[in-house]
């Protein structure tokens, strides 16, 4: 159970809360080494068997290889930070590149390779990037300090059965200040509602390590003194559950538009944190894409 202590009262929790930069924990390096070892081992053993055929809409043949490139822009109306009750509009690039059955570059997961891609099942390794949190993002964060951006190591799993798909992603930051890891799980369904329109829906949940929870939702004695919020110890566990929908409509061979909406509820120690002003988090997005 989380512990809440009045401001200024000392608590020995066996840790030093980050304010600014700190030394990267050995667990992050250990996880990175493990992921790299898995990747090199699988590649060394060979990408066995014949991979599933690549049937991405709009793929082309270049020197005997299939490829697909889609770029665009996405505007998202989302909370100022995870747990905020203030919302802001932000623009993000949309990037989706696939080469053959092996290489990919996605805005969310980063650049990587599939070490297994057959029978509607994919396993991949990728290096991505995560944006931390700045104290200036909201007045509610005053006194809590900044959380560093950094590169992330990602282990991906995807499985599809007709219009139903299951996705899992292990994500851990390995540059900047270590923030532990997250495991993202999702069960989705793709519905072709018209000839050129697809409706994608999914239920999602995220599990976060104790280091991640402490960094984003915990409050150290020093932060308590600066912010006036009570000391709070956040343990690892499931962080959120949610439901998301995205509609994609192809205008022609190259251009497409997309619109989405999502809801996430912060649960467990994340939802109980004094940093969180509203456990219910909403998002609306709209964008345009171009397929080469």
Describe the fold and architecture:
- The structure is a single chain.
- With 292 residues, this protein is mostly beta strands.
- It has a single domain (4-58, 67-291), classed as Porin (Beta Barrel), CATH 2.40.160.
- The protein contains 4 helices and 15 strands.
- It has helices spanning 26-44, 210-217, 221-227, 268-272; strands at residues 4-5, 60-62, 65-79, 87-99, 103-106, 110-118, 121-130, 150-161, 164-173, 181-194, 197-208, 231-232, 237-250, 255-266, 280-291.
- The protein has a 12-stranded antiparallel beta barrel. A two-stranded antiparallel ribbon has the order 1-12.
- 26% of the residues are buried.
List strands and helices in order, with pairings.
Layout: E1 4-5, H1 26-44, E2 60-62, E3 65-79, E4 87-99, E5 103-106, E6 110-118, E7 121-130, E8 150-161, E9 164-173, E10 181-194, E11 197-208, H2 210-217, H3 221-227, E12 231-232, E13 237-250, E14 255-266, H4 268-272, E15 280-291
Antiparallel strand pairs: 1-12, 2-3, 3-4, 3-15, 4-5, 5-6, 6-7, 7-8, 8-9, 9-10, 10-11, 11-13, 13-14, 14-15
